[in-house]
Write a structure and sequence with these properties.
By secondary structure, the protein is of the alpha+beta class. It has eight helices and twelve strands. The longest helix has 27 residues. The protein starts with a strand and ends in a 6-residue tail after the last helix.
């Protein structure tokens, strides 16, 4: 249930312009889309759209996070992604379900207006295809990780996405509760717990008091992720 819908504020304009999708559009097209947008405020656990519904609008996340998953009607059977500020979702169809993970603000942009712009602007079609192609490559890479990497390697690789450090020691804090992280990595919570135990062998320690994972050697952990001889 939408808590509140209000017009875009000036601060929202600048955030929306930084969206990877809009970065591919010219200023005129971006301005038209933003002027038609309305800001929605959602609490955690609210649906933006469900798989199979008519795509009458698409969304740009302004603040908070949205979890995208395949919906079997009774469970999050498969988490496809968790997206944050700047991400555009639902910009063509609703093949997945989108649910807010925490308190979230999104810009809702009318789908019919977007479609009309695409019909008249082939350059925008190419830009949209470019963005969709990028998302597809990311999805293919994740599927490859599921098949080719062990659970410990997948968790280690996830930790590396949470830091900009190239080497040395670093502390990393999970952005979501472990259950959500497990869903994102295609694991059960108990499987994630075993993966966490296994990465201790490559210098990763969980410090419960501080709620952080201390990576002793970032470069060594990256080597572990790329190894073909890691234990399952």
């Amino acid at each position: 249930m939408t808590k509140e819908t209000v017009p875009c504020a000036p601060g929202d304009f600048s955030q929306m312009r930084e969206s990877p999708l809009f970065s591919r559009f010219d200023e005129g097209a971006v301005g038209r889309l933003i002027s038609a947008a309305a800001i929605q405020h959602h609490e955690a656990g609210e649906l933006l759209f469900r798989r199979g519904e008519a795509a009458d609008r698409f969304f740009v996340v302004i603040e908070g996070h949205v979890i995208l998953y395949l919906d079997t009607g009774d469970d999050r059977s498969s988490v496809a992604d968790i997206v944050g500020p700047g991400s555009a979702i639902g910009e063509g169809a609703y093949p997945i379900t989108a649910e807010t993970l925490d308190r979230t603000r999104v810009a809702a942009i009318p789908g019919d207006m977007f479609q009309q712009m695409l019909e008249n602007r082939f350059d925008l079609v190419l830009a949209l295809l470019g963005e969709m192609s990028l998302k597809l490559r990311i999805l293919v890479r994740r599927i490859t990780d599921l098949k080719m990497r062990t659970t410990a390697q997948r968790f280690a690789a996830y930790l590396l996405t949470l830091t900009d450090a190239e080497d040395g020691e670093v502390d990393v804090r999970l952005p979501f509760e472990k259950r959500i992280v497990a869903d994102t990595l295609g694991m059960k919570p108990e499987t994630l717990s075993r993966a966490i135990a296994k990465v201790q062998n490559v210098g990763v320690r969980y410090h419960r008091a501080a709620d952080v994972f201390r990576v002793r050697d970032v470069r060594a952990l990256r080597t572990f992720c790329e190894s073909t001889e890691a234990e399952a």
